[in-house]
UniProtKB/TrEMBL annotation:
Family affiliation: Belongs to the radical SAM superfamily. RlmN family.
Name of the molecule in the record: Probable dual-specificity RNA methyltransferase RlmN
Additional remark text: Reaction proceeds by a ping-pong mechanism involving intermediate methylation of a conserved cysteine residue.
Primary localization: cytoplasm
Species name: Termititenax aidoneus
Pfam families hit by this protein: Radical_SAM
Database matches in HAMAP family: RNA_methyltr_RlmN (MF_01849)
GO biological process: rRNA base methylation; tRNA methylation
EC number: 2.1.1.192
């Protein structure tokens, strides 16, 4: 079975090369020069390249199948993985600030009612190298550096914990992409064991929680994971996480007309988040054919924003972006073309 060199951290590459210096060359060519095969690494001895190949090492690359551009500057990439499975990756451009939204799984097990990816069957986890390669390929395609990274694409990142954390270590490495931990966000639907593990990693990441409802009864209807990890358990884990890391938490709240956008639900949210250092993102729902919800009226979103802001929470409204190319929050499905 072939072993993808993109799955390896700098220290691991140094171990498999004859000399640590050659491992550093490998890492530089993979991460900074987007090498597609070992033969391109011309300053690596030919004998070492041959030895690596004979030992089953290769450079496996994502294949771009389609690049879609929305009028607001959002870009979506449909990539084929080496085994033919497909994922989608989204690049957000905000006044020159480039944020890449990466996928961590083919499909998703979580089945959130409002999410297109949740309607896909779960196929498999991505390897660390397949996550990293989304950054490599996006930078190569656009000829621009990625400044911020959000693990908010297809899949639940904490359900693929080890590969996600390894990809972060690779992308954070100063010898490679050097994306600072404070510029990396992991989003979770609320996997309590993963949050507890993450609290002990000592990383200054940003953690975002897909909340979307502040009562167990409603959240369980929208997000089946709430039946396994109800709000009291989730909030307990988040408070421990915050105490250990000192990091403010982000709560994502998708605004669904007639479902979770009433004044009493805003009050429930305020009560739930009491005592937590939190930033709230109110997300305008992006309709798609795989769910029957409708977005809240902008007047309702504004009122919800006012109620949370008035109580001292920093709250932002995230209006629709990339919807025209099905690149908006909750719309990723890796369609066949």
């Amino acid at each position: 079975m072939l072993k993808n060199l993109k799955d390896l951290e700098l220290a691991e590459l140094k171990k498999i090369a004859d000399k640590p210096f050659y491992g550093a060359i490998l890492f530089d060519w993979i991460q900074n020069k987007a090498a597609e095969n070992l033969d391109q690494i011309s300053n690596l001895p030919k004998t070492l390249r041959t030895e690596l190949k004979n030992n089953g090492f290769t450079l496996a690359n994502l294949k771009l199948l389609k690049r879609s551009a929305a009028a607001d500057g959002t870009l979506k990439y449909l990539f084929a993985l080496p085994d033919g499975q497909k994922i989608e990756t989204v690049l957000l451009n905000d006044a020159g600030r480039r944020t890449l939204c990466v996928s961590t799984q083919v499909g998703c097990k979580m089945a959130c009612a409002f999410c297109a990816t949740g309607r896909m069957k779960f196929k498999r986890n991505l390897s660390a190298g397949e996550i990293v390669d989304q950054v490599i390929q996006a930078e190569k395609i656009e000829k621009n550096k990625i400044q911020n990274l959000v693990y908010m694409g297809m899949g639940e990142p904490l359900d693929n914990y080890d590969n996600v954390l390894k990809s972060i270590r690779i992308l954070n490495d100063k010898a490679g992409k050097n994306i600072g931990a404070r510029h990396i966000t992991i989003s979770t639907c609320g996997l309590v064991p993963g949050i507890e593990r993450l609290a002990d990693e000592g990383l200054q990441l940003r953690l975002a929680i897909s909340l979307h409802a502040a009562t167990d009864s409603l959240r369980a209807k929208l997000m089946p994971i709430n039946k396994k990890y109800p709000l009291p358990d989730l909030m307990r884990a988040l408070k421990i996480y915050q105490k250990k890391t000192g990091r403010r938490l982000t709560f994502e709240y998708i605004m669904l007309h007639g479902v979770n956008d009433a004044r009493e639900q805003a009050r429930s949210l305020l009560k739930l988040l009491s005592g937590i250092s939190a930033h709230i993102n109110l997300i305008e729902y992006n309709p798609h054919a795989r769910a029957e919800f409708q977005p809240s009226a902008r007047k309702a979103i504004k009122e919800f924003w006012w109620l949370t802001t008035d109580r001292g929470f920093e709250t932002a409204i995230r209006y629709k972006r990339g919807q025209a190319v099905n690149a908006a929050c909750g719309q990723l499905y890796a369609e066949n073309y």
